[in-house]
């Protein structure tokens, strides 16, 4: 961990901290693995040399992933929210994060194959959700899984 980073979100995984961190870093520019910590000889948690934790930066934000076993599971109470630039970025991230066992949910929420919840929300959708035509936009949004800005635009225009 960088000495100047005092706060970072810690994500608990059973045993997939490193592949999860590598996958997340592959999706966002400005992302990288900072450090991989391995269990030492004589520990009671895992075999020596197995990954204990990973410090990584995701789009400039610091995270830590730990392999803590099956005592806790990730759930929707915590999610990573991504404000996408456009529909193409929304589609790209949605496809990658729901692939290989991920699951779609409602209103731009999904769970990836590692169990982490994400909110993939185009910036324009947020503008429409809280703009002058919000009353027309919200009922349409609540019917969506992946957010489609074009459909929200049409709702805002009364179509």
Describe the fold and architecture:
The chain has helices at about 15-25, 85-100, 125-130, 135-140, 150-155, and strands at about 10-15, 30-40, 50-60, 60-65, 80-85, 105, 110, 115-120. It has about 160 residues and is an alpha/beta fold. The protein has a 4-stranded mixed beta sheet, with helices on one face. It starts with 8 loop residues before the first strand and ends with a helix.
List the helices and strands and how they pair.
Blueprint: E1 9-13, H1 17-27, E2 32-38, E3 51-58, E4 61-67, E5 79-84, H2 87-98, E6 103-104, E7 109-111, E8 117-122, H3 123-129, H4 134-141, H5 149-156
Helix pairs in contact: 4-5
Q: Could you provide a short overview of the structure?
A:
This protein has five helices and eight strands. With 159 residues, the chain is of the alpha/beta class.
What is the terminal-to-terminal distance? 51 Å
Distinct helical segment count:
5
Described by the principal axes of the CA atoms, the overall outline is elongated
Count of DSSP strands: 8
Question: Any idea what the radius of gyration is?
Answer: 18 Å
Low-pLDDT residue intervals, each spanning 5 or more residues: none
Structural category is: alpha/beta
Strand order of the largest sheet: 1-4-3-2
* Helix-strand sequence: EHEEEEHEEEHHH
Biggest beta sheet summary: 4 strands, mixed
* Strand percent estimate: 25-35%
Range of helix content: 25-40%
What multimeric state do the chains show?
Answer: single chain
Mean pLDDT: 95
Give keywords.
5 helices; 29% helix; elongated; alpha/beta; four-stranded mixed beta sheet; 159 residues; single chain
């Amino acid at each position: 961990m960088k000495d100047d980073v005092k706060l970072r979100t810690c994500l608990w995984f059973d045993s997939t901290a490193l592949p999860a961190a590598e996958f997340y870093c592959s999706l966002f520019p400005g992302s990288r693995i900072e450090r991989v910590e391995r269990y030492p000889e004589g520990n009671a948690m895992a075999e020596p040399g197995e990954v204990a934790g990973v410090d990584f930066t995701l789009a400039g934000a610091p995270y830590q992933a730990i392999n803590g076993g099956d005592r806790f599971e990730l759930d929707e109470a915590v999610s990573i929210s991504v404000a996408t630039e456009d529909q193409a970025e929304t589609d790209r991230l949605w496809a990658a994060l729901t692939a290989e066992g991920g699951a779609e949910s409602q209103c731009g929420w999904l769970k990836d194959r590692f169990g982490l919840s994400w909110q993939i929300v185009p910036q324009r959708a947020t503008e429409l959700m809280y703009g002058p035509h919000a009353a027309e936009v919200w009922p349409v949004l609540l019917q969506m899984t992946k957010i489609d800005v074009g459909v929200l635009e049409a709702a805002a225009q009364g179509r």
